[in-house]
Amino acid sequence: MRAEHRRLPFSISVDKNAAYPEAFSTSQAERIVPKDCKLRRVKYLNNVIEQDHRFIKKKVRASQCFRSFHTAERTLEGIESLHMMRKGQVKRLDGSDAAGQAKFVASLFGVAA
Question: What is the pTM of this model?
Answer without folding.
Answer: 0.43
